[in-house]
Design a protein that fits this description.
Layout (H helix, E strand, L loop, with lengths): L24 E5 L9 H14 L3 E7 L25 H11 L3 E7 L2 E4 L10 H4 L23 E3 L5 H17 L4 E5 L13 H11 L10 H25 L4 E6 L11 H4 L3 H4 L5 H6 L5 E4 L10 H14 L10 E7 L5 H13 L3 E5 L6 H4 L5 H13 L19 E8 L8 E6 L2 E7 L5 E4 L5 E7 L2 E7 L3 E4 L2 E3 L18 E3 L37
Parallel strand pairs: 1-2, 1-10, 2-3, 3-6, 6-7, 7-8, 8-9, 9-10, 11-17, 11-18
Antiparallel strand pairs: 4-5, 11-14, 12-13, 12-15, 15-16, 18-19
Helix pairs in contact: 1-2, 4-6, 11-13
Length: 541
Amino acid sequence: MPTPPLPEKPVVVEVPAGPPGSTLRGLWVDAFGPGLKTRAQVQQTVNDAVALGVNTLFVQAIRRGDCLCMKSGLPLITDQALEKNFDPLAIVTKLAHERGIKVIAWASVTGIANAAVPSTAPGHVMKTHGPSSGAQSWLARRPDGSWLEGKDGWLDAGIPDAAEFMAQSVVNLVRNYRVDGIQLDRIRYPDGGDWGYDPKTLTRYRAETGAAGTPAASDPRWQAWKREQITALVRRIALEVKSVRPDAWLSAATITYGAPPKPGDLAAFTRSRTVTDVMQNWPEWVRDGLIELNVPMNYKRDGVAEQGAWFNGWNAFADSVRVRADRQPSALAVGSALYLNSPPVSAAQAGRSVASGLGWVGYSYRTPTLNVYEGKESMAQGLKAVGSALSARPEVLPAEQRWEDAAPSSRGLMGRIRGAAVLGSRPVEAWQGGVRVAQSLTDGNGYYGFLTLPAGKTEIRVGGQRWADTVPERGVVRLPDLVLRDLKPASAPASAPVAPATPAPAKPTVKPATKSAPVKPATVKPTVKPATIKPTKPGKR
């Protein structure tokens, strides 16, 4: 099949500066249909993006425990349509960059299986840690042991080995590809709220909290602990990405279930299904610098009940919580459901978003209109129709506008505790000049870290011990591992005696998928001192 020709090179125009992300115009390109599986498809995708006028492609790299790439450490997708000896992520990044288009590698993190299109790769996680793996299974489970949500299987972020697997896979995307950033999708528990009941997860929960028995799905303490597992996984990925590529964007496709809270009303947000059902606290991720580009999946249909007002309300709420703890504003672009709406409605939603100073991303390239999703017109016809509707609004797609924002400066450090019987949920504090400037918890593997610290000398306090280093103006310092011996569980009184900590040599925590050089550890010195539309994609995302 001949490669389609490149369109003429776009002309770059100056646009007025606005809030971070306000000039972003994006398109999600999923991996369940045409668009990424051959060189000709990738070329056509880039051509169509240029013709449409978008400046950023969110390209699905990690799909369901497999990858449209060769250097993630995950198996390649096993679709018959995939061209042999072909690395889709490498080629789409190269071709898009040549056209002035940024590429964000989109990763499905906890969503790792689709029973309708299972991977046949021998090394796929479903074969090594799937439903038939006994105590080695990493799947999220309901109280009755079931693991399927519809046709989807999910990993449990509360299982430390599963969290390590997910983190390594995502970080390898920025280690080995010149993508402009990563986007975390399906970074949550499945819908329903009654997940996390693998015996290993329950054992951890009891050890870290002192709770007894099996918690009810509605137990606030249990919900809070599960939310922390998701946040800890986001934190670990963010710290590793920034230690490898400080300039790479950290993004997440976030949940907007049901009616929106009022702007700034975090208390109302904590009562939403986003928090109590799928355990996702994305305002906290923004505040702590764990994501720098928030793309709420604001999938609503104008004209269906109050969903048009919900669309506006979620935009306003997201805009109200975009400032980080270090006072830097994060970037914000609204994700809208092209596949649920007609082109005029999609254009109207995009118009309302950009009029509020927000960027805009459409889902998706493969299903650009409701008619395409329902099989009433072809993908090419849908792209033409939505392109005409969007281009009729110059404010939505200004002529050849590029997204030039740089990622906010991340300043922080990361480390790990080892040796204790219980590694997770241990309080960690960062002190500067005698003042506590940040606090967090260790994850199930003992990792901790911060990304919005002021630059300068910083003392970390964990397990009754102290360790000091200097936070740089940009980037992440990696501290040596600390071996904590004979510690009591985190639920023990603060006055419980502890033994001295012994620093262990630091080493890279994410193994490169290729022979690229590992990240060198920092040199440190010890010191004595209910919605009707859910944000899931057309049966696949």
